[in-house]
Amino acid sequence: MKNKFGPLLFVLTVSFTNNILAQTSSLSQTLSNQQMIQSGRILFTRHCSGCHGNAADGQGPASQMLNPKPRNLVTGSFKFRSTPTGTLPTHEDLIRTIDQGIVGSSMPSFRLLSHSEKLSLAMFIKSLRADWKESEGSSISIPDPPKDIFGTKSTLLASAFHGRKLFIEACQTCHGDKGLGDGPSVDGMVDSENRSIRPANLTKKIIKSGPSAKDVFKAISTGLDGTPMPSFADTYSEAQRWNLVAYVFYLRGIGSGTYSESADTLTDPSKQKKNKETKTSTSGDSSWN
Ligand code: HEC
Ligand code: HEC
To answer: Does domain 147-288 fall into CATH 1.10.10.10?
Structure first.
């Protein structure tokens, strides 16, 4: 009997023990998750509820005076995500928002909190929605900005030339011909909470999603959920989206005086080459400055 069932008993015992171990470790994991959420709640009351409210519904005492309003974290949409439109942000997205704040709004940076405090806050925010797990998106891949576009001013302007066509086609109705945020659809524009909202003035330095080419690519690709700003991930190829980013950079350059607004600044790159050939000896590249 012993010989016959010994190995089986051994296997059963081992798998039983493993099972218990697995259960214990997932139990302690759950416990520590609960503890983190609990400490996130305490941190939230201390640092965030003045704006976001004790119930995280965006109705804190300071919210009356703020525009844009603090987010309702229980039912609101999230603007700053690396995930596709219609999904919830990842852990890292939340930590990034907490870490960096949102420039151009009253949402401050909490850079001075420790990483585990930021993590607890992110876990607390996720615990506010029963559907978080199933609705969380996965980050879309954001490639490095192509060097043959962002390497030099003239390659950037050549790409912006193509970007402008797409911009007129898809963006100017909201952002306006010159990117000032004054397109024909602006009147009566509201966000998902029925509050009035304006398209970004793209000639201004501040882009809430962040200033880098990757940040702008991300905003165009994911859209800003809860606002009229749509996702263009399915509309335009990666190459086209980089041309749009180049055009946004060009518009910002006009705002800061780096580029001139004269109609001929963006010329067809194929024609531009010919111009350049005849021009190099005299004026060089100074027209881009
Ligand atoms: C002084 C007011 C203020 C405080 C304090 C504040 N927030 Fe905010 N928060 C805002 C505002 C305003 C927005 C919306 C900005 C916008 O829509 O552009 C916002 C947005 C957010 C968002 C949404 C980001 C997105 O992708 O849409 C998160 C998450 C957030 N806050 C978390 C926090 C946490 C966590 C704390 C505390 C550690 C905190 N906030 C403290 C004002 C505040
Ligand atoms: C239906 C209107 C609409 C269209 C079309 C639209 N946008 Fe927007 N866009 C907005 C609004 C509204 C905001 C501001 C959201 C906010 O402040 O929270 C915005 C914001 C932005 C931002 C700034 C994001 C930030 O983080 O501050 C960029 C960049 C941008 N849009 C680029 C584009 C480009 C490029 C296109 C065309 C491919 C486009 N938008 C098309 C409405 C639109």
So the answer is: no
